[in-house]
Amino acid sequence: MKEPLVYMRKAQGSWEKRILKSLNSMCTELSIPLARKRPIGEQKELFNKWNEMGTDEPDLSLFRPVYAPKDFLEVLMNLRNPNYENGDQPSFRNHLGLIQVPLKVKDIPELKDYFSELGLNTGQLGIDDSTQVPPELFENEHVRVGQTVLTEQDSAAAQQYVRQGCPTALRAELWALILNISNQPEDILYYEQLKSNVIQHDLLVDSLIYKDVKLTASNDDYYFVFEDYLYQVLLCFSRDTSVLEHFSYNSATPPKSYIRGKLGMEEYAVFYPPNGVIPFHGFSMYVAPLCFLYHEPSKLYQIFREMYVRFFFRLHSISSHPSGIVSLCLLFETLLQTHLPQLFYHLREIGAQPLRISFKWMVRAFSGYLATDQLLLLWDRILGYNSLEILAVLAAAVFAFRAVNLMEVTSLAAAEAVLADLSTLKVMPLLQIFLFATVT
């Protein structure tokens, strides 16, 4: 179902207008068309260097990302439910965070119940000193169970299984099983068709994709080697009209473009880009971690597309869904305010609202912030629980873990410095301690 709350739909609509305005003004300033057919010579050249697009250095200095996470956060901070403006709800007024909309989010007891498989007495991959069972015994048994699940090709069993983490050797196959991706000949053919669309037509969003990869993944110690894969997947993704189907349950609406001189005439309208998704700063980081698991472009492509239409779109559209970014922000702030009130007030007083720091982690599902092995353990749980709520819990757990240092800072810059490097963090112990060892 599309978004039930009218004010959320309105906010999403006006945010989309802003994005389109930014895109259109870039077109006008740079005198570039939204789309053009490539000359034959250019098509041949692109075809020949398809596997080494990273060596191509187009001049992108004039292009800028359509928006960055901090622009999006400003919009979410201004969200208000018009029915609550008269302060009818004093209980909600006690929420001192940046998000001021009354959505229901889980409290710690509900989270403990929901994430019960992360409990201290359950074996987990990603925990070095499991209490009950020596880790090597648990791991051997866990791998054996994983192999059985794969043999039986049972998607629901795979989803339950990955809640305790995936063995590295089985992860690619288990994720594909959960996402129902089989990479049949027709899927490979479909990917090849998308590729030929990329080769034939040049879109303005291609430059945005290039720019984003250059600004993010290319500078990342883990992901720079996958630059070519990222271009291939993202350029094909922008042409994939099957992605439009997810707008039936996404609060967003795909943007339309009109043939020149026919503005407003629906029969001359096309969705632009063809998949309806305008990339923003950091978008390529949704694909980068998957490159560790899948080396065949068509399979990598399908996995990414499925992850996007199930999960990632919720991180950059305004909705009241429990896995939507608004709910995640509210859950994060509520957890901190309830369980670390001193830290929360201290940071708020010095102008370092915690959400200003954690927002970028959540929007990117922590990609580019955690070490890859830890990120994949986190994404195991997203697939296992079919929910993004764990992102907000982890963000709160990171603040809890660094609370002593954060209590000593006196500015936003200093707080950001304390939390600048998350690459040494171990995800599972953090989550377990926060959820199951916190006194409530």
Question: How would you sum up this structure in a few lines?
Answer:
By secondary structure, the chain is mostly helical.
Descriptive account of the structure:
This protein has 440 residues and is mostly helical. Helix content is 51%, strand content 3%. The chain is built from 20 helices and 4 strands. Helix 9 packs across helix 12 (297-310) and helix 13 (325-339) packs across helix 14 (341-349). The longest helix is centred in the first third of the chain and has 25 residues, at 6-30. The radius of gyration is 22 Å and the shape is globular. The model has no long low-confidence stretch (mean pLDDT 90).
Write the layout of secondary structure elements.
Blueprint: H1 6-30, E1 35-37, H2 40-48, H3 69-77, H4 90-93, H5 108-114, H6 135-152, H7 155-161, H8 168-178, H9 185-200, E2 201-203, H10 204-215, H11 227-238, E3 256-258, E4 269-271, H12 297-310, H13 325-339, H14 341-349, H15 354-363, H16 372-385, H17 389-401, H18 403-406, H19 412-418, H20 427-436
Antiparallel strand pairs: 1-2, 3-4
Helix pairs in contact: 6-7, 6-8, 7-8, 9-11, 9-12, 10-11, 11-12, 13-14, 13-15, 13-17, 15-17, 17-20
